[in-house]
Amino acid sequence: MTDSPHSPAAVSDPPAPAKTTLDINDIQRILPHRYPFLLIDRVLDLTPKKRIVALKNVTVNEPFFAGHFPGFPIMPGVLVVEAIAQAGGVLILNEPENRQGKLMVFTGIERARFRRPVVPGDQLRIEVEVVAWRHAAVRMEGKAFVGDKLACEATASCALLSRAAGGPGPQSEGSES
Questions:
Q1: Could you say which of 6, 33, 68, 135 is catalytic?
Q2: pTM of the model
């Protein structure tokens, strides 16, 4: 007897839907960053190749607060931009099957604007949207909010590099994001 299209043997389960939320363990499987430089804690929403919404819980225990600024702790703006880039990194590095062999580096930051200080006790909601994605280069627009107030916005460009022995070569300038 052969299986008909209606028999149970011919029915296959549909593929599992892509994960749209990620916890810290999922994030650490995607990003190479670790304490004290991992700047996102959770992903609330992920639409592959399009958009991500992530959270960063800002606590007084962050090491940068010891010097920025004593008695008046403010999260450095460059670290807010880095948190935007890391959220974008999760969005981008979530795609390649061999992501362990890839590294995302900044190639540009444009139009960074800081609208309000980020202080201990704040929770940053980071929203990043892909503007352009061409093979190994991506341009993203990111915004970081505290509550409903915009704290920072920036456009970031990055490239996906191979993690070949020795790391990025001399033609690959920029910091890891």
A1: 68
A2: 0.83
